[in-house]
Design brief:
The complex is a heterotrimer of chains A (339), B (325) and C (298). Chain A has 339 residues and is an alpha/beta fold. Chain A has twelve helices and twelve strands. Classes of the chains: A alpha/beta (339), B mainly alpha (325), C mainly alpha (298). Chains in contact: A-B, B-C. Chain B: It is a multi-pass membrane protein.
């Protein structure tokens, strides 16, 4: 048994658009150790959701996994036949979608939708399924009387709990949560995240939490993977990456978000500009055009993802100067001056 | 509760529409050029009969008084006497209604069964050669005059191949113990086949196009993607989730289609000499049998309005977002 | 005079552009081509048709030219039982079909657009009254209504136009109304009002141009409806016996035992013509929908 439940190696996913194609994920590598919560963070369009969906191999009609490996429990699930992949879905790899409103079928009761996976995918009998439904609802803190309700009868937070119950139905090893709290207000966000953490610890499962919000990562994750323009910019233990970021993008992200715990962390400074058009990515480091610290080599050569301290990897030509850059990045003028 | 209130207010609204249609009908038959009395009194009636009808419909009274007498008579189901048949209009119309309903429903069941399946199939084969050829073809069937289609089917299947009779509901001279015995006889089915097929070919386009476009929309919904991520079988994803949701508006359209179909029946019943409401309306108008024409028109209007109401209620019933609000 | 002549193409061109004809959709182009063909046939009917459509014809042997098959004695599509030339009837039928179709469509689109505009723009009790009227129009069975109307009035092709104008504005009216409501909710109407523009000016300058394509879309559906309705009415014998229409031809064929005689050359061509014109309207409509509501996709 390997220490990592999931190892993604050099994953490439591309979308066919018109006559050309866009490499939405262009060589992403990261690990998910057993029993941990890994935050996959980045701005919208950085490829994090594409990575999440690629792990289930249910991707858009015009998308394809064009390279790399997805080692799940030591097996490359990017290469196995569809039948074997389908056997893994939900039993081993479950998914919590961003908006539970749209991802629950409006014409069936919540119980029907739980039963559907329990019986069709889990092979439970009607009796077993009913008991499991009740215990799942108990787990996520909804009274079992509401099993017979339809999705639209729940509040946003409740629906997200239903989605969690649904994801845990078959005792998966890995749960992928795609922006699970984005649509909720801050207080409910915290409740849901607390619950997710509690259940994850109790069940010993692994969670990949996809989010654009670095404060969510800080609140709940053990490890973090920062993505930029289809590539991994920085990855490592959450505390290490967030307190001592080595990539200017991570430094910028940290300035741009309020603290979920409520503590004021000074002024918020957004990173100027937008991620590059992936149809024609810039040569060299993809963050260079927005980076206040970019030097000549940055726009010609793509930096490799290298380990700077044990277990902490970063893809930046100036990673060795990180402590100094952090000081400068903490100042608001740095990001304004660049603009 | 709010749902019940919505149904009640909709019912009230349609009752008002019905009242308006009844009033329009009254005005049409009284104010149109020609002798207003002609709307009720056949010149060949005896003087006593004429006077009895004058009294019954208040034809010697001012217009507004006639209107209230007319409404009162309607409420009692009194539609006057047919000139041609010398029998109460209401009786005649209720005797013809089953024929029309059988034709309408049998053709619509066929049309919807086919249209729903074919629409779902075409959505699934989106962008294929089959779909590219089928959609214009379906639009063409919507562009056909129903009676022309009936003529072609008659010429081919009845006059040329001789597979089906040319019109009516039963062989000449055939007699049946009851209406039920007639409707369940083999002969009746062979008479029903061509007119029902004509209407079905015309009507399948609506459910087909509706089902197809709904399916295309629903297939893009998150819950369909989720069903795939759950590893559910293709059949479960497409049928239980996508089709089940896409079906909602199609089912509702069934009731509306019954209303439209009744209007189309006017020509198709005439072609196939099908003794229904539509043919009766045409014959009554041609023969200046005004009470009968008025009665047939009213009956068709009532069914159309009733079907609009049923469509609303069906939608509320089938969609838990409304029924479990 | 000169200025007008110079300005005119500009104005026509602008109008044409604001219609946003869907020229990139092959089916819509096919539909427009069908319209154009029938329009030319209708205009030059006198030159195209070899005979007067109502004239009873004789063979060179002085026999009645009745029930001739296509090609016999030089009759392209044969003759009717009364010895009339079917091809000439088809050609002249184009005329009445288009006259009825276009005027009825114009009336329906015009009334529907005005009702929708007024209803959506002013709202309140005006809207309530107009929409209840639309509800009532939806409660009237259309074909029976036309039959009764045709029975009371003198037989004329205009009965169909009148009936459509009285009843069928309902669909266009509702759609245009909801479109106007959407347009209103985008700030610029309020902005124009704050700037002191009059209601009439706002409607004409800001709203009408945006609903013109929709009116045209419903107009092209109405052309089909009008032609189908006229055919049904003529077929049932409530049409104008003086004017040759495709529906009249079909009624003539049906009453003259053309089905039993297997005279397909008689009753198939008028049906095909109706299908072509009506489906041309559908194809144009579809092209429009792809243009107006691209998210619907194909």
């Amino acid at each position: 048994m390997t220490a990592n439940l999931l190892s993604v190696r050099d994953l490439k996913v591309s979308y066919r658009v018109g006559n050309g194609h866009i490499d939405a994920v262009d060589g992403a590598s990261f690990d998910v150790p057993r029993g941990s919560i890994v935050g996959l963070v980045g701005e919208s369009g950085c490829g994090k959701t594409t990575v999440a969906r690629a792990l289930t191999r249910v991707i858009a009609d015009n998308a394809r996994i064009t390279g790399g490996q997805i080692l799940f429990d030591g097996k490359d699930i990017a290469a196995i036949p569809e039948r074997q992949m389908n056997a893994l879905r939900w039993r081993d790899i479950a998914f919590i979608p961003q908006s539970a409103m749209n991802s629950l079928d409006p014409v069936y009761t919540v119980e029907y939708q739980l039963n559907e996976v329990l019986r069709r995918r889990g092979g439970l009998s009607a009796r077993e399924a009913r008991m499991r439904c009740e215990s799942l609802f108990e787990m996520v803190g909804i009274e079992k009387g509401r099993l017979r309700d339809y999705p639209h009868q729940f509040s946003g937070g409740m629906r997200q709990r239903v989605a969690i119950a649904l994801a845990l139905a078959l005792n998966p090893k890995l749960v992928i949560a795609d922006e699970p709290v984005t649509a909720l207000d801050v207080i409910v966000q915290r409740q849901i995240l607390d619950q997710l953490r509690e259940l994850q610890t109790m069940l010993g499962i692994s969670v990949i939490l996809v989010t654009h919000d670095i404060s969510v990562v800080a609140y709940i994750c053990d490890r973090t993977v920062v993505m930029y323009a289809g590539r991994v910019a920085e990855a490592g233990p959450m505390a290490g990456v967030l307190t001592r970021p080595a990539h200017p993008y991570t430094m910028g992200l940290r300035n741009a978000f309020p603290d979920l715990a409520g503590a004021a962390s000074g002024t918020l400074t957004p990173i100027d500009g937008a991620p590059p058009n992936l149809a024609e990515p810039p040569p060299g480091c993809r963050f260079a055009p927005r980076c206040p610290f970019s030097i000549e080599v940055c726009s010609t050569e793509s930096p490799p993802l290298a380990e700077i301290v044990p277990d902490h990897r970063v893809a930046c030509h100036r990673a060795s100067e990180a402590p100094v850059l952090r000081e400068i990045a903490a100042r608001t003028e740095t990001w304004l001056a660049h603009a | 509760m709010s749902h019940l209130k919505a149904v009640a207010s909709r019912t009230l609204q349609l009752a008002l529409v019905l009242w308006a249609v009844v009033t329009i009908l009254f005005l049409m038959f009284r104010l149109m050029p020609g002798n207003p009395m002609a709307a009720y009194i056949d010149p060949t009636f005896t003087v006593e009969q004429q006077q009895a009808l004058m009294a019954q419909f208040g034809l010697d009274k001012p217009l507004w008084e006639q209107y209230f007498i007319y409404l009162g008579n309607l409420l009692q189901g009194e539609l006057g006497q047919s000139f041609r048949y010398r029998e109460p209009v209401a009786e005649r119309i209720f005797a013809l209604l089953p024929n029309t309903l059988i034709l309408t429903f049998s053709s619509l069941f066929v049309a919807y069964a086919f249209g729903i399946l074919a629409g779902a199939y075409l959505a699934w084969r989106r962008g294929s050669a089959v779909e590219n050829a089928a959609i214009p073809l379906v639009l063409m069937t919507r562009a056909m005059p129903e009676f022309w289609l009936g003529m072609v089917l008659l010429a081919v299947f009845s006059f040329w191949l001789g597979w089906f009779p040319a019109g009516g509901t039963r062989p000449a001279g055939a007699d049946y113990d009851s209406l039920w015995a007639l409707y369940t006889s083999r002969d009746f089915l062979s008479y029903l086949a061509l007119p029902a097929l004509t209407l079905a070919i015309y009507s399948q386009g609506l459910p087909l196009l509706l089902m197809r476009s709904n399916m295309l929309d629903v297939m893009k919904e998150d819950f369909v993607t989720m069903a795939r991520i759950k590893g559910l079988s293709n059949w479960t994803v497409v049928v239980r989730h996508a089709a089940r949701n896409a079906l909602l508006p199609v089912m509702t359209s069934f009731a509306i289609a019954v209303g439209y179909q009744l209007q189309g029946n006017v020509v198709v019943e005439s072609i196939f000499s099908w003794p229904g409401l539509g043919r009766e309306l045409v014959n009554a108008v041609s023969a200046s049998d005004y009470p009968l024409a008025q009665g047939a028109f009213l009956m068709i209007a009532v069914v159309v309005i009733l079907m609009n109401l049923i469509a609303d209620m069906l939608y509320a019933l089938l969609d838990p977002r409304i029924s479990h609000a | 005079m000169h200025d007008l002549a110079l300005q005119k193409p500009g104005l026509v061109g602008r109008m044409f552009r604001s219609l946003k004809l869907p020229l990139s959709d092959p089916f819509a182009v096919f539909g427009l081509a069908v319209y154009a063909t029938f329009l030319l046939t209708a205009i030059f009917a006198d030159a195209i048709a070899p005979y007067d459509p109502t004239e009873i014809l004789y063979t060179p042997e002085y026999e009645l030219a009745s029930d001739l098959r296509p090609g016999e004695q030089g009759f392209i599509l044969g003759t009717t039982s009364l010895g009339r030339d079917i091809f000439s009837q088809i050609v002249y039928g184009t005329r009445s079909a288009l006259i009825i179709g276009i005027t009825a469509a114009f009336m329906v689109a015009l009334i529907g657009s005005v009702v929708g505009l007024v209803s959506g723009y002013f709202g309140g009790w005006v809207d309530a009254v107009l929409m209840r009227l639309a509800d009532i129009a939806f409660g009237i069975p259309f074909l029976p209504f036309v039959i009764v109307l045709a029975a009371f009035l003198e037989p004329s092709i205009w009965n169909v136009v009148l009936a459509m104008a009285l009843v069928l504005w309902r669909d266009t009216g509702r759609v245009i109304r909801s479109q106007v409501l959407t347009l209103r909710s985008r700030g610029y109407v309020d902005a124009a009002r704050v700037c002191g523009s009059s209601d009439l000016k706002i409607i004409l300058r800001h709203i009408a141009p945006n609903i013109l394509p929709l009116s045209f879309l419903y107009g092209s559906i109405a052309i089909g409806w009008a032609i189908l309705t006229e055919a049904s009415i003529s077929f049932l014998g409530f049409g104008d016996p003086q004017s040759i229409s495709w529906g009249y031809m079909l009624q003539d064929a049906f009453a003259s035992q053309a089905l039993a005689k297997q005279a397909y050359y008689w009753f198939v061509p008028p049906g095909i013509c109706i299908i072509l014109v009506v489906s041309a309207g559908f194809f144009i409509t579809r092209g429009y929908e792809n243009l107006l509501f691209p998210k619907l996709g194909r």
